[in-house]
Every structure is written in structure tokens, then in C-alpha cells.
Predict the structure.
Amino acid sequence: MEYEIKPHEKLSLGIKELWQYRELFFFFTWRDIKVKYKQTVLGFAWAVLQPIIMMFIFSAVGQAFNIPNEGLPRPLFSYSGLLLWNIFSSGLANAGNSMVTNANIIKKIYFPRLIIPISAVLVSLFDFVMAFVVFIGMLAYYLLRGEVHINPVSFILVLPVSLFITAIATFGIGSLLASLNIKYRDFRYVIPFMISALLFLTPVMYPISGTHFVWAKYLFALNPLYSAIELLRSTFSNSTLHIYLVLISLGSSFVFFISGLYYFRKTEAYFADLA
Amino acid sequence: MMKPILEIKNVSKKFRIQHNVQPYLSLRDSLSSVFKREKMTSEEFYAIKDLSFNVEKGQSIGIIGRNGAGKSTLLKILSKITPPSAGSIISRGNIASLLEVGTGFHQN
């Protein structure tokens, strides 16, 4: 095997190299999952418990203030939003801090740096799988009671699309923050603040159709999670899908993905010097 | 005659040392330096300058030098942890590096 080490100049995706190191994805992800639930009494149950507790709070608040819910049972409405929101929030927090927490490895061995933020997002997808089992149970319960109608074909088709949008948006913003975080540690404080602020700008607790202002809807659509949540909900609610808004949101998630990837690849060579 | 397994050609590694600032970067400093006219003095420092040598197959090599002579920096470049500022290295083989003690330990 012959290769050359040169000054950092060309910008490539490095897919081939990522594939060579594919085993490392598994080990980083598995390590993070294990560490996350180490020394906890409830263990993996936390992945399910968190969205369920939030669901109760959101449903109660929604009921108390009579927030519109697109004709869906309140728990189902908020849980479907929380499912995807939790991928985003935990993925962003993990990915954003991942380069700093793994600084010790970065400084000592070489591997494609992209593996770190990607596996941080994979960890939150693992949590999603746990929470999704509960979601299926809830869906079945409401189906049997005849309170919702689901189009199974579109549900199975749309679910991966929603997940994909959420994952690339999380990865994009997460890797952008990760590379900024290693240079400017200020971003350590920006990330949790950003996550809690964004929750109010994401249609988790309320539907976007609740507002009468058209400009507000377009503003909401800039949020990548809007399309992911709205697409998923549309398969079992009667609400009409605003195709323009969904497209804007889709576009924004791709913009975040590309800009995050670009900035990360551009700066990754110097992580070891900065960390 | 076999090709050398490691060819190091004119490798340099440059660091910038900035004066009058904290030893870490902060967003505030970066932002304020945009507005401030006074230039932050920075000095270029070569950890490695124009280094060339070859390693043949079967050779064992020791690199010696004082603190800060650039030994570890050279090894970091060789193991691709940090890129060189100039020059190139051709490697024919695998590099297994073990820099510093404690590689792979996790805080938990």
C-alpha cells in the first residue's frame, strides 16, 4: 500500500476512506451507547421514558390551553413530534460536543474525523428505535379504538424519508457546531441554549396550521424538522400537506447538511492542532 | 534496489504563535479583532523546517532531540494526525503509531 501525505488542500468527501474504516463506526457508536447508560438504574428505559414524560406534559399543556392538534389524539400528536425531535436534540448535543469530548483520540491516532459526528447521530437513532416501539403500540391502540386512520403504505414509505431528513439535518448542524466548538469553546454554551430555543420553533407541541400569519408559516418552514414531522403526521392525520412549505424545509435540511459537511471537511485537518 | 519504504521530502510544519492573547481562541477575541485596528502580533514558528530523509526496509531509526525539537510533530505528521505545512511524504507500508500513553482511554 503506497500513499502520500501532503499539505491539506483538496476537498473531497473521502467516502472511500470512510468505507475502509467502517468498523470504527460500529465501535464508536456502541461505545457511546454503552457509556450513555452506564451506571444508570433504568438503563435503556431512559430512551423511552424521556419522550413519554414529555408527551404527558405536552398533552396536558395542549389540553389546558386548547392548542389545536389537527384532530389527532393529543398523546399521539405530541409523541410523533417528540420522536423526531429527540433524534435532533440529542444528536445535536452529542455531535456538537463530540470533537471536544474525543479530543484525546483525535490527538493520538488517525481516522477519518467524520466518523465521530456521524456515530453521535447514530447513537440518537438507536434511542429512536427504542422510542419507536412505544409509538407503534400507541398507534395500534388508537387504531383499534378507531380514533385515527392510517395509510400503511404511505406510513412505511414516509417514515424512512422523515428519518433521513432528520438525520442529515442533525448531522449537518451537528458537524458544523462540532468543528466550530473545537475552535471556539463558546459553542459549548450555544448548543444547549439553541436546542431549548429551537423546540419552541418546531411544530412538536402545536401544528403549524395554528397560526394565521402566512409569513410565520414560511419562517417555520425554514426549520428542517418541520417537513420531517409534518410528513410523518400526514400519514395518520387528515391535515393537508402544504407542499411548498415541505419543500422549503427539505431544501433547508440539505443546505444544513452540505454546509456542515463542507465546513467540517475544510477544517478537520487542523483539529489535532487546536484541540 | 528497492524503493525506500518512507520518503520524507522537504517537510515543514509551521505554527503561528500569537502574542498578547490567551493561549486559546475565543469567539469574542476573533470578533473584536475584526473591529480593532491594532494588529495582533503573531510570529511564525517552524517546528520542522525543510526536513528530508529516507527510511529503507529493515532499518531501525531513532530520532533524538531536545524538548521542542519537533520529534513528536514529525511523528504526528507521519501518522496523519496533523498535516504538514509544506513538503510531502511517500509511505509504502502501514504505519502503526502509539503516541503518548493513554491512547484510547475513556473518561468513564
